[in-house]
Amino acid sequence: MLNTNQNCNIGFVGLGVMGKSLALNLADHGYRVAGFDLDTHKIQDVLNTEAAERIDPSAEARIIGCSDMKEMLSHLVKPRVIVVLVPAGKPVDAVCQSLIEAGLEADDIVVDCGNSQWTDTIRREAEYKEKFKFFGTAVSGGEVGARFGPSLMPGGDANSWKYLQPMWEAVAAKVDKNGKPIESNTPGKPVTEGEPCTAYLGPNGAGHYVKMVHNGIEYADMQLICEAYHLLRSLLGYEPEEIGKLFEKWNQGVLNSYLVEISADILQQYDQKTGAPLVDMILDSAGQKGTGRWTSISATQMGVPAGIISESVYARALSTLTGERELAAGKLTADVESGEIAAEDVEKAIEEALYCAKICAYAQGFQIMRAAQKEYDWTFNFSDIAKIWRGGCIIRASFLQKIADAFDENHELENLLLSDYFADAMAKKQTGLRKAVVLAAQSGIPTPSFFSALAYFDGYRSDVLPANLLQAQRDYFGAHTYERVDAEPGQKFHTFWQEEGRPERKA
Ligand code: 6PG
Questions:
Q1: CB of 223 closer than 6 angstroms to any ligand 1 atom
Q2: For residue range 140-149, what is the model confidence (pLDDT) as tens digits?
Q3: 180 and 276 inside one domain
Q4: Are residues 73 and 117 in the same domain?
Q5: Lower Cβ count inside 10 Å, N or C end of the chain?
């Protein structure tokens, strides 16, 4: 294992699924990697895979295994770049501590590529400043993405970015000039042309924050597809395979995305054991690691309306109440209307509903980031963010190009819904969303994210909301004061609601 040459471009601590895949990706692009993991089997596994995949077996190994962090550091060119891919939270700090003890220097760069909470990245960047440069890079795309081209969301010390940029641009997913992903999943034959799905997003926690919002949108995107499936199945009695085929068709149009594509594939698979559609054999209780919840919490803390994302988190939570739901199903009935519905019309309505709700969910995600940049002193380039999500990541979708175009046209765009393209799309297709929501309500089918999307759209486009009554209520019971429509903004008024009696209308 030992090799004293200082000729490796990058070190890895953590060679689990993601670490291994990213290390192999870097090796494919010609970088030499020094890897370490507490589990020696994982080191051996990555070395074996690299050897097996090497196109020229006589060529020198591009990945070397190290028996400790000190040895790993001894192989790296300076300033040393070390990727840390360990579970988020305490393990990241434990690795940083061990790296310091192993001889890290002030110019060395430690890159946390895990799903860390952005506040931890902000803290770590400040805390380790004197010892080394702590840099965040969030990775999306799962195992295959990491191996053949992920979407990379870097944030940290701007000076360190110049060392990372060539490597990150090499290994990131690529898109063509129309924003379409260029994919190759062949080891040793990486994609080298096209625009890389990575861009420097800002200091300290900026990259991890953007990834968190990516995941919040991912939750919404997934939930909306599930609601479309639920409606098609319950309203029209379609079998999963039929819905899968319909999704395949939708995937050719404006809904084209990785998540619609995989859902189409999932729905057409059958269980080998029972012969039933595989989806029917999977327990309807959703897991979550927390990034969608963090997005919802962050939005709520900043006062950003992000109901679709939050509803998607709640929908997962509700799904886990399997025992209670069973009990309730026997006790609570729905008083529903049934009537003749034309399948073709319903299909069209649900397709439009999915598109409109998806636009609203992305609008909310970008609103969250707009607020966060003020909160954390970042300056996001929203067009760049949309562009680096066009390939590699879980929410990759062709309409991200339209989002990038909208922000390119107007960098100060307050809300995606205000761009001509998306305002027009909502004008043309909102009937479908309204119809889907009505059908769901009439039939007792839970579609919380569709409902929330419509409420958001209608709320956002309302120049008058009943918040005037709400302000009056607050003033009535708590003397919280209110502003008047005919006074200067910021000027506060209070009414002694009970003491003053109920003044009558002036004649
Ligand atoms: C990605 C995914 C990835 C992971 C999620 C799953 O972008 O590659 O988002 O990060 O699949 O963390 O999250 P949940 O377990 O919360 O669904």
A1: no
A2: 999 999 999 9
A3: no
A4: yes
A5: C
218 as an active site residue: the answer is yes
Closest Cα to atom 9 of ligand 1: 215
Position 6 confidence tier, pLDDT thresholds 50, 70, 90? low
Q: What distance in Å separates the CA atoms of residue 219 and residue 293, rounded to the nearest whole number? A: 9
Burial (CB count within 10 angstroms: exposed 0-12, middle 13-18, buried 19+), residue 16: middle
Tens of pLDDT, residues 285-332: 999 999 999 999 999 999 999 999 999 999 999 999 999 999 999 999
| Rounded Cα distance, 1 and 4, in Å | 10
User: Any idea what the CATH number is for the domain that residue 350 is in?
Assistant: 1.10.1040.10
* Residue that finishes a domain, picked among 204, 220, 250: 204
- What is residue 131's predicted lDDT score, i.e. its pLDDT? 97
Domain assignment present for residue 411? The answer is: yes
Distance CA 409, CA 415 (A): 13
Nearest CA to ligand 1 atom 4: 142
Query: Residue 3: what pLDDT?
Result: 46
Domain that holds residue 401: 209-458
Catalytic-residue membership of 133: no
Does a structural domain hold residue 185? yes
**Strand, helix or coil for residue 386:** helix
Contacts of 139 (CB under 8 A, 6+ apart): 18, 22, 113, 145, 146, 150, 151, 152, 153, 211
pLDDT band at 31 (very low <50, low <70, confident <90, very high): very high
In a domain, 200, yes or no: yes
Is the pTM for the entire model greater than 0.90? yes
Q: Which candidate in 218, 311, 351, 352 is catalytic?
A: 218
**What's the total number of domains in the chain?**
3
Averaged pLDDT, 227-249: 98
Rounded CA gap, 301 and 209, in Å?
14
Quick one: 400 and 505 in the same domain? no
Instruction: Give the dihedral sign, CA 249/252/253/254.
Output: positive
**HEC string of 89-144?**
CHHHHHHHHHHHHCCCCCCCEEEECCCCCHHHHHHHHHHCCCCCEEEEEEEECHHH
* Best CA proximity match to 173, nearest among 186, 162, 182: 182
| 499: CATH | 1.20.5.320
* Closest atom of ligand 1 to CA, residue 218: 9
- The confidence band for 5, taking pLDDT boundaries of 50, 70 and 90, is low
Same domain, 76 and 176: yes
Ligand 1 within 6 A of 136 CB?
no
